[in-house]
Amino acid sequence: MARRFDEPRLVMASHNEGKVREIRDLLSPLGRDVVSAKELDLPEPEETGDTFVANALLKARAAVAGSGLACLADDSGIEVAALNGDPGIYTARWAGPDRDFMVAMSRVNDALGDAQDRRANFTAVLALCWPDGHCETFEGKVFGTLVWPVRGDKGFGFDPMFVPDGYDITFAEMDPAKKHTISHRAVAFQKNVGCLFRWRTLNHRWRPTRRQGSASTSTGPIARGSVLTAISTCAGRDPSTPWSGATPSAPKWRIGEPVRATRHKRSPASISAAVRRR
């Protein structure tokens, strides 16, 4: 069973502001204060691993050594089918020393040439390590197609070139709130990271408002949906199916209740009671 994370502060072992922002959005409903490695002046270790898992662990352990705190690290990249999985773990290197991802995207497009197969996937591995050396890792993928010329200005990295399956816009054209529900990091988070955090923390910052379901809310449905999916997965059930009462694999309380609470005009106190009820 995964170890529970009970600390109030978590270090995100990254200097990439886009990655840090996405993880903050995913973790904010859990009541955890996320501080980046850049904010703590921690150096970026050389990524010498030969897999996403190895590099994520390397970065998490380096941040733990520098901060003395539990650290979450991400290693991610884009894998292009027609390029035998490249750039893969070397995605950032394709952007050159200046980390210019327009350069990286141009290199990928040039390498593809007239290839008909433009399928690709983003892969992300999240590694959470504690000062005592214990680590947990989780992987997420999202599949799609590469387009040229690039489109959109909302994302980072290869987002302007990547159209996820089921959509006709790139990640960089997509509202960030929507992207954060389907991205490779969100998928990794949804799988198991939610299992590491005590469910009671859902109430620390989760204060539903009358506009809870809209994209204009302060935290929006981004992390809330991810957290609930993660908890559903921890409970041993398919998160894509609605709760319909207690089953042998489902908890006795219903995760769906607090999400719909404002529609029923329930108070925050009753919502908290519903989450705690067993």
Could you walk me through the main structural features you see in this protein, from its secondary elements to its overall organization?
By secondary structure, this protein is of the alpha/beta class. The chain is 31% helix and 16% strand. It contains 9 helices and 6 strands, in the order βαβαβαβββαααααα. It has a 6-stranded mixed beta sheet with strand order 2-1-3-4-5-6. β1, α1 (17-27) and β2 (33-36) form a beta-alpha-beta unit. α4 (176-182) runs parallel beside α7 (220-234) and α5 (184-191) packs parallel to α7. The protein is globular and about 50 Å long. 39% of the residues are buried.
Assembly level? single chain
Provide mean pLDDT, rounded. 76
Proportion of β residues?
15-25%
Number of E-state strands: 6
Secondary-structure element order, N to C: EHEHEHEEEHHHHHH
Helical fraction: 25-40%
Taking pLDDT < 50 over at least 5 consecutive residues as the criterion, the unreliable ranges are 199-233, 235-268, 270-278
- What is the approximate shape? globular
Biggest sheet, strands in spatial order? 2-1-3-4-5-6
